[in-house]
Amino acid sequence: MKSPSLRAVERLESRLVPAALIDRGDFYRAGGAAVPLAERAGQVAVQWSGPADWASLTSAGGMLAGLRVVQELGDDAAILEFAPGPRLDAREAAPVMGRAGVLTAAPVFANPATGGYVIALDEVVIRLKPGLDAESFFAGDSRFSSHRPLAGTPDQFYATVAAGNGRATLALAEDLSHDARLIWASPALAIESVRYTNDPNFANQWHLNNT
């Protein structure tokens, strides 16, 4: 039987504690201005190869052993973090991206305005300058594995980043922002929607408690 003190430590570690933030100089551009991103230490956004049973995958002996679920993002995606303590099994110490069943793995950043998550997907969005067609722009460019039009627009496109997601997407979007053939370029981001207000008296407005 475990001692009361050990059980107390386990309960303490199991509480939801905000991840530490690390400044590695990451950013993206919005409206021409750089938006800084801080990395959530120890967290990774994982896309699984199909509908995922995260409890089973992260259990001892599972393909994602050594990690625990922070937030599920759908049937096949979740934000995971490395569980505290020593890695007792070689699988637990293996890089997440190299594990069977993992389609993509990307660092998780924090939204500087709300603290919610920001995940750079494996696409960039671009707008071509007048007179330039998509085939001419993308032809023979190994930085992209494919492209598709943004619905309802004649000059905007999603382009899949050949190098993957995460920092590869941020880096390519930054390079493209200096491309004279484009009006603008932006990374495709998954950004957590967070409700908040800057009204300091919000808590005193009882009639808004249910909004």
Which key features would you list for this structure?
alpha+beta, 5 helices, 16% helix, 211 residues, 9-stranded antiparallel beta sheet
Q: Give the helix proportion (percent range).
A: 10-25%
- What about the largest sheet? 9 strands, antiparallel
List the uncertain runs: 1-16
How would you spell out the order of helices and strands?
A: HEEHEEHEEHEEHE
Per DSSP, what share of the residues sits in E-state strands of 2 or more residues?
A: 35-45%
The best one-word shape is globular
What is the average per-residue confidence, as pLDDT, rounded to a whole number?
A: 86
Rg: 21 Å
Number of strands: 9
How many alpha or pi helices? 5
**Structural class based on helices, strands and sheet pairing:** alpha+beta
- Separation of termini? 46 Å
List the helices and strands and how they pair.
Elements: H1 4-14, E1 21-30, E2 33-48, H2 54-57, E3 67-72, E4 77-82, H3 90-93, E5 102-110, E6 117-128, H4 134-138, E7 144-149, E8 156-161, H5 167-176, E9 182-191
3D structure, described in words:
This protein is of the alpha+beta class. It is built from 5 helices and 9 strands. It has helices spanning 4-14, 54-57, 90-93, 134-138, 167-176, and strands spanning 21-30, 33-48, 67-72, 77-82, 102-110, 117-128, 144-149, 156-161, 182-191. Strands 1, 2, 3, 4, 5, 6, 7, 8 and 9 form a 9-stranded antiparallel β-sheet that branches. It is globular and about 55 Å long. Mean pLDDT is 86; it is low at 1-16.
What's a concise summary of this model?
The protein is an alpha+beta fold.
